[in-house]
From TrEMBL:
Membrane topology qualifier: Multi-pass membrane protein
Any Pfam family: FecCD
The UniProt record lists the keyword Cell wall biogenesis/degradation: no
UniProt family annotation: Belongs to the binding-protein-dependent transport system permease family. FecCD subfamily.
GO MF assignments: transmembrane transporter activity
Lineage: superkingdom: Bacteria
BP terms from Gene Ontology: siderophore-iron import into cell
Residues annotated as transmembrane: 12-35, 67-84, 96-116, 122-142, 154-176, 196-217, 238-264, 284-307, 328-347
Protein name in UniProt: Iron complex transport system permease protein
GO cellular component, one term: plasma membrane
Keyword terms, alphabetized: Cell membrane, Membrane, Transmembrane, Transmembrane helix, Transport
Location(s), subcellular: Cell membrane
Length: 353
């Protein structure tokens, strides 16, 4: 049996503590770093002064909500990915790969284009509905045939549904330019321009899903041994799968509603957590929550600097005469740049095994 780096209770606790410290460091970096320079004194006084300066206002009204959203969305996507990989026993499973993000995004875009929906609260419910529909369709397609549900069929079904909803979304946007202007940056996966009211709309759903996910960690670990073993130990596998699926819909749907379809966070982080702690979901899920938040915070910091004035891409393009049209790269682009090589590596390893 493979030994993992953190295989003792002391190491597991120490590793989780180190992860929390990494998360706090990334959080502080997220509210300090960016185009507007903020020194430590300004940062400390930003939350105490009744008459904030421009820099303090940026920290309070822009960077703090952005950091909180990044933590919540990153943790939710990572935990959703871990649950999906456990339920399907597929190392490639994640909300982005299995079409859940694409389905939620399509329904939001369609509602905005055809029904003039603009309420964020409505977007939340529509995103949940789209995530649930995509999950059911992928599960149904992956279960067809004599061999029943298999990881390969689930992966193919997920890829097909992702392409299907992505094509429908592009078709809607092409025929409705006003909707394109409203949702284009959101579709790239971004946490720019969101405020705390946006997070407040979905936080109750996220909190319920976090608690429920941690509550089913032990049954999920047992389920990883196989359905027959789990039933032999007295587990009601149907209920465990139902609650796990509900958590995936709540986690992925709320994340898409507030930040758009950010891909790869639900794929990369669970594999890092599994490498560290193994398949014990009592530890793996807390690690996913902490590392997922840190991952998205660090990706967001990188997104700010990539094409900001003086950034590497701007310096590169300035010599060619090209023009940068945005202030920064959507965080979903950064997670994709990190996640695609990771996805290819896992896919090749799965095929070779």
């Amino acid at each position: 049996m493979r030994s993992h780096p953190l295989h003792t209770p002391f190491r597991l606790t120490f590793g989780l503590t180190a992860g929390v410290l990494l998360l706090l460091t990334a959080f502080i970096g997220s509210i300090k770093l960016g185009l507007t320079r903020v020194d430590w004194q300004t940062l400390l006084e930003a939350f105490r002064t009744p008459d904030p300066t421009k820099e303090q206002l940026v920290v309070r009204s822009t960077r703090l909500p952005r950091a909180l959203i990044a933590v919540s969305v990153g943790s939710s996507l990572a935990m959703a990915g871990a649950l999906m990989q456990a339920l399907t026993r597929n190392p490639l499973a994640s909300p982005g790969i299995f079409g859940i993000n694409a389905g939620a995004a399509f329904f939001v875009v369609a509602a905005s284009a055809f029904f003039s929906v603009s309420s964020f609260q409505a977007y939340t419910w529509i995103a949940f509905f789209g995530a649930a529909i995509s999950s059911l369709v992928v599960y149904g397609l992956g279960s067809t045939g004599r061999s029943g549900l298999t990881p390969l069929k689930l992966t193919l079904a997920g890829a097909a549904i992702t392409a299907f909803f992505a094509t429908l979304t592009q078709g809607v946007l092409v025929t409705n330019e006003s909707t394109l202007d409203e949702v284009l940056f959101w579709l790239s996966g971004s946490i720019v321009g969101r405020d705390l009211s946006a997070l407040a709309q979905v936080l109750p759903f996220m909190a319920v899903a976090w608690i429920l996910t941690l509550g089913i960690a032990r049954p999920i670990t047992t389920l990883m041994m196989g359905d027959s073993v789990a039933r032999g130990l007295g587990q009601r596998t149907g209920w465990v799968k139902f609650f796990a699926s509900l958590c995936v819909v709540l986690l992925a749907g709320s994340a898409v509603a507030v930040a758009g379809p950010i891909g790869m966070a639900g794929l990369v982080v669970p594999h890092v957590a599994r490498y560290l702690v193994g398949n014990d979901y009592r530890w793996m899920l807390p690690y996913c929550a902490v590392l997922g938040g840190a991952f998205l915070l660090l990706a967001d910091i990188g997104a700010r600097y990539l094409i900001m004035p003086g950034g590497p891409v701007v310096e590169l393009l300035s010599g060619t005469g090209a023009r940068v049209l945005a202030d920064e790269v959507p965080v979903g682009v950064i997670t994709a740049l990190i996640g695609v090589p990771f996805f290819i590596t896992i896919a090749r390893r799965s095929v070779s095994e």
